[in-house]
Amino acid sequence: MKEIRDGVKSNKISSSESFSSQPLVLDIEDFKGDFSFDALFGNLVNELLPAFQEEEADSIEGNSNIGGSDSLPNGRSTQIQSNPLFPEVDSLLSMFKSSCSQLVELQKQIDGRLYNLKKDVAAQDSKHRKTLGELEKGVDGLFDSFASLDSRISSVGQTAAKIGDHLQSADSQRETASQTMELIKYLMEFNSSPGDLMELSPLFSDDSRVAEAASIAQKLRSFAEEDVGRQGMTMQTVPGNATASRGLEVAVGNLQEYCNELENRLLSRFDAASQKRELSTMAECAKILSQFNRGTSAMQHYVGLRPMFDVEVMNADTRLVLGDQDSLPSPSNVARALSTLYKEITDAVRKEAATITAVFPSPNDVMSILVQRVMEDRVPKLLEKLLVKPSLVHPPPMGEGGLLLYLRMLAVGYEKTQELAKDLRGVGCGDLDIEGLTESLFLDHKDMYIEYEQASLRQLYKAKIEELLSESQLSGESTGSIGRSKGASISSSHQQISVTVVTEFVRWNEEAISRCTLFSPQPASLAANVKTVFTCLLDQVSQYTTEGLERARDGLTEAAALRERFVLGTSVSRRVAAAAASAAEAAAAAGESSFRSFMVAVQRCGSSVAIVQQYFANSISRLLLPVDGAHAASCEEMATAMSSAEGAAYKGLQQCIETVMAEVERLLSAEQKATDYKSPDDGIVPDHRPTNACIRVVAYLSRVLEAAFTALEGLNKQAFLTELGNRLHKGLSNHWQKYTFNPSGGLRLKRDITEYGDFVRSFNAPTVDEKFESLSILANVFIVAPESLSSLFEGTPSILKDAQRFIQLREDYKSAKLAATLSSLWPSS
């Protein structure tokens, strides 16, 4: 093994020595391109490093074999001196030093090359700059040459243009001179003798050259008239020239006569071609006629002969829209008929527009004349028969439609005519102000519109009230006697407020507002008209509800009169008293029915006011906003208008309280017995039930106030119930002053007070509840012993005065000498 290792080692050493003996050569080319230091270094050391790796592997293998076989008996291993760990290091160091030397040498070579390149670049740059300077001088010279050339070209062009203008002017002058000579020739022919048109050139009689003849005749006529006018001014300023040239006056007369004859001839040809629908011939004649007064006569002539303006056609329009003269026209039928008629007119105008465009050189002017004729002739004649303005002093009766029929017809006619104007604008009407023309058709009606609207609303209201009154009278005649025989309300025949009627008032007003919006496009005028119309509604609702409440109050007043009629004295027979009691019950039934009727009237009045307020918020207020103060003024008017109804309602509610309290007093007087509060001391268990009078009164109040709870709401309800509660407290207090109480009667009274207090608690009136709680405390004066009275009202000094009055009602007031006791207990009282 040792020999083998030595052999291998000697081989490796020899190989390394042979590598190190060979000189390393580095070339500049090695550093060009994609240079990598790692690759260069690898190429330098890879021939040495594999030999070192093989030797290391062999040494590891040899050490393991020696350790296994050369062990000594005494357990020690043989120590073998190992070779150096990296024997090629000397070769690598030598190689690295050689490489460094070569790299330094290469750097010097590269520095030399760079220096030479810098010198060459500097020389080339200097040469290049010199060349550029020379080129710039050459370019500047070239630009100067171009500018000089452009200036010369421009000068030549201007000269050529001037020459061309002179040539054109000369040609134009030559042409004008030639035409002037011909015109002078023709002018002399027309100036030969008055009325003599036989010696004219063939041009003026040749039908194939009519256009040329018309043009020349118009030129000659214009020149001759201008010359005559100038001569006239000269004669006015220079009197001595009275006999100066008058020759052209003959030419003016002859030219006028010729132009008239030629125009008539062309119009005849135009009419003949129109009947045959020869559009080309019509267009040729129209073009020539346009030279005569700009063709106005031809346009008007064409429009005037249109079939749509025949008298028979206009009469048919009236029959279509108004229908049978014996029947009352319906706005809906008139609207449909107007839509049909206006559509026919629009279609006819559209058809004529196609012909006019193909024939006339200025179709917009012809369309303007055609549409103007429609809006000034055909439409006004129809509207004149459709819109007959009625008298405000003696308006037509509602049976004939009243003023409302006129207003509805006016709205239909205005709306449909505006639609016609819009459609005709779409077809084409030139520069015609068709919108202004349409407005002028209705100007006379719109000036008095708002007065008619007010009068119509008043007429509708009057007719409605008369209708309701008639229905009420018929109903009263059929049911009045039966109702009275059964003790029904005297007010049953009175006309009651109806929310449906108020809704109808609002519907009238909505219709009137829609017409205001139609007739008043400007916000300011619209707001003024809307305010006026809405004020009519406020007046109607105010009057209707106030009168309805007053009628309901009449029922309460009549019921009160019945109650007073049957009040009897004390000394009457039993039979008379029984009859009076029966009549009083009938009066009470009438009062209760009148109370319910008035509450229904108040409820419907509130609903009516709410409808008006909702209508104002939804439809009126937004129309008033554009005008400062209009909204606030209308709100104030609304409050003022409803104040009369509020006054009637307040008076009626006071009467309702009087009616209720009158019946309460009657029931207490009839049902309350002296023994209710002064039961005999017979050992029978006291009755803790409310007295019969209390039961009857509470039952009556529960029944009658049900209508008040339903009809009233908010502050009105609270105020009414509070007032009624206070009156009930006062009435009961005064009622109980008529009776004497023993302890058991005091307990019965306390039970009655509890019953009354439980009922009035539904009023939700804290002040009333407090008063009945005080009554409950006062009732204790009848229950406690005389010596306990002083402690009974400790902490409640406010009821001492009432307590003294109640103590005087005790059965033992005199026997127990309570008067002296009261004086000692409350000396200050």
TrEMBL record:
UniProt entry tagged with the keyword Transmembrane helix: no
Glycoprotein in keyword set: no
Residue ranges annotated for the Exocyst complex component Sec10-like alpha-helical bundle domain, each copy included: 212-820
GO term, biological process aspect, one: exocytosis
A single Gene Ontology CC term: exocyst
Stretch list, region Disordered: 60-81
Entry's family note: Belongs to the SEC10 family.
Protein name: Exocyst complex component Sec10
Organism the protein comes from: Deinandra increscens subsp. villosa
Upper lineage: Eukaryota, Viridiplantae, Streptophyta, Embryophyta, Tracheophyta
